[in-house]
Amino acid sequence: MEPMSDRPRWYFFAWFAVVAAAHLAVEGWTETTAIGLPVGFAATLALVFVRRLPWWATGEARTASTARGVKVAGFGLLWLLVAGAIVVGLVEHPPHGADVLYAGVFVSIFAGASVFGLVKLLPKRASTRRAVLRWKLVFATTAAWAVGALALAAEVAAIVVTGGWLPWVLPVPSLVVVLALAGWRSELTGPVACLASGRWTPVAAAAFDVRAGEPVDGWAVLPGDVRIKFHLPAVPADIAAELGNRRRLWLAGWPAEDLVVGLPDGDTYAIGFIGHHGPWG
């Protein structure tokens, strides 16, 4: 089980793809590109997978409001830089012939990344219905395979029809999208398996302020006399009532890698994050 801050930051792959494509569109393949792309990719790997980096490097501030402000500011600044580079490149080097296709592909990638970033930044309340969770897993699985097949077909078409540098650039956003979908699917697989297992383990738990639909921070005693601090985002009403009135949580599919809670006869769920754990007493 991993704390929320320790999960991979997949969105940095998307930023790397956009910046790399912008540089290639404006400057082409140069000696700077040959050095900068590997170095940038190595830095991106560190941002994605290294745990507990400074908040100013990742945008993951301690409070939700500060974190969202940092992400909005970072997205806006990067969007302006890339958009400015596109405009400068198109004005100073207007595309002709096959370059029109290259420019169209890159602008489409930038537009898609912009829409994705805006959707991720918009405030929204996640669904806590188990049926929705199962449909998300089906969608993520189908989308990953479909995008992979489409990307392969597009790469073959780019090699056969256009040639040039497009076949070298096209796999970057395709790989980012496939990896993002695969990462999303892997995050869904564990909770779905826990809820489908039919195993429910009651544990003693308590929290000071329990309100339906709001985040909850509290304490629980896992099997084996292990005391933990936990965080539950947007607790459904039935789980909130169980925790507030009976001081109890039901763990689905325990032991498991994910802290999935619900009720044996309910249709909602919540995925918890562990802040600290250790032996009781």
Automatic annotation (TrEMBL):
Residues 1-133 form the Cytochrome b/b6 C-terminal region profile domain. It is found in: Membrane. InterPro entries: Cyt_b/b6_C (IPR005798). The keyword Membrane applies. It comes from Amycolatopsis rifamycinica. It comes from the Bacteria. It is a multi-pass membrane protein. One of its GO terms (cellular component) is membrane. The keyword DNA-binding does not apply. GO terms for molecular function: electron transfer activity; oxidoreductase activity. This is Cytochrome b/b6 C-terminal region profile domain-containing protein. Coiled coil: none annotated. Keywords: Electron transport, Membrane, Transmembrane, Transmembrane helix, Transport. The chain crosses the membrane at residues 9-26, 32-50, 70-88, 100-123, 135-159.
